[in-house]
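Q: What structure does this chain adopt?
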Amino acid sequence: MGVKCGAPGIKLHQTISNHIKRERQRAFKPHQTISNHIKRRASAIPTRASASIQTTSNYFKPHQTARQRPSNVQPGIIYEDNHLLILNKPAGWLVQGDKTGDATLIDWGKEYLKEKYNKPGAVFLHPAHRIDRPVSGAVLMARTDKALGRLTTLFREKKVEKKYLALVLKMPAQTEGELVHYLFKDEKRNVVTAYLRPKADAKESITRYRVLGQEKGLIWLEVEPVTGRPHQIRAQLSAMGCSILGDVKYGAPTPLADASIGLHCISMALEHPVQRVPMRWEAMLPPTAWWRADKSMWQSFP
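A:
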């Protein structure tokens, strides 16, 4: 049975439907040459302001580096200008390097910019935030020091809106709510524990969620993290008994075949750090089976 939602849910339903249509038509097409990639352009999703945003085509395959690529699925380009680069990260990619030595989203982005603009020297590119390796979706990066400084301020002042889609294994007791926990991270085990009351060295974490619908045993949630703690969404949803699909670290019974989890950063909204106009971007859904929803899923919406 579906769950009824208010107007915000309907808007996200339309967003998801559009993503599914686009994903079935063009998701992860064979890689094209850099010249074709640069020539193909499309308008970005409209923002609250009337600003027109230009975004490049979604796929580019830089030359292979010595370091191991995490998967055959390449990142997608959501938007770029002189100050920003926003990528659609496939699950399995690191945003920044770790002890594995695997190639990262930053590596990919620098390689892309170096080839596209024929840059002879080092390329400046720095992530404004990170998402976990098994998570997919939008990642915002700064191409200039000026943009990075202002983005850091926007994130610190909680002026960046990030929305996720989560596929969970159990229906929450309430169809929408705000979760408040105190998260403690065990650095050695790389696991976060959520407590209901303040605890030494634990940081307050706030996450809002809304039930969108249900299909094939999976509950679709819209999730908005208010704070930005490590593993925040994963730990807090697990703490309320709603583990994310495939997330064995936080209570899911089995992993997914590609080692991803059912969590995708679908949209970001903020004031452009240099142009100072409101902007919003969306990341299309991965082409895996669990992210495909039948039309019947949306018939419960008013």
